[in-house]
User: Fold CP12 domain-containing protein from Prochlorococcus marinus str. MIT 9116.
Amino acid sequence: MKSIDEHIQKDQSEIESAKAEGNLPKVRHLTEELKELEEYKDHHPEDKHDPNALELFCDANPDEPECLVYDD
Assistant:
């Protein structure tokens, strides 16, 4: 994806398709991903890039060891 807005739109349309197919596991996965994307967008309104999984995780869990940044 080129932007977070495109990713959100794609997930919304895929959720509708998965619901129509009765694919509940895919609906749950995409709904959770959509929630994370929307939270990231709320926290970073000026940032339009499509965040990767680590960025989403660290936005929600900044104190996790994977997310800590140390200055030398």
Summary: The chain has one domain: 4-67. The chain is about 65% helix and 0% strand. The chain has a mean pLDDT of 94. The first helix runs from residue 4 to 21.
